């Protein structure tokens, strides 16, 4: 077990390490979501998910072509 100055330095080091590891999940999610449904504006990760979305949420509409 450490005492005094070693303990304080160890606590600082651990707190800095933990702060760098944390990040916003919303930011990471926004990077991954690239396809947007033009009807309801929901964001999806890829074209296949957009086709599946159209099949379940907009069955009377045809999905847009692959614009990537």
Automatic annotation (TrEMBL):
Keyword Chloroplast annotated: no
Taxonomy, superkingdom: Eukaryota
PROSITE patterns: ZINC_FINGER_C2H2_1
Alphabetical UniProt keywords: Cytoplasm, Nucleus
Main location (coarse class): cytoplasm
Segments traversing the membrane: none
Residues covered by region (Disordered): 1-25
Compositional bias (Basic and acidic residues): 1-19
Pfam family, any one: zf-met
Subcellular location per the Swiss-Prot or TrEMBL entry: Cytoplasm; Nucleus
GO CC, any one term: cytoplasm
Protein name, as recorded: C2H2-type domain-containing protein
Lineage, broadest ranks: Eukaryota, Viridiplantae, Streptophyta, Embryophyta, Tracheophyta
């Amino acid at each position: 077990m450490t005492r005094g100055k070693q303990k304080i330095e160890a606590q600082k080091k651990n707190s800095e390490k933990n702060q760098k590891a944390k990040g916003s999940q919303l930011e990471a999610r926004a990077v991954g979501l690239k396809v947007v449904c033009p009807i309801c504006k929901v964001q999806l990760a890829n074209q296949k998910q957009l086709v599946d979305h159209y099949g379940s949420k907009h069955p009377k509409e045809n999905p847009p072509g692959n614009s990537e």
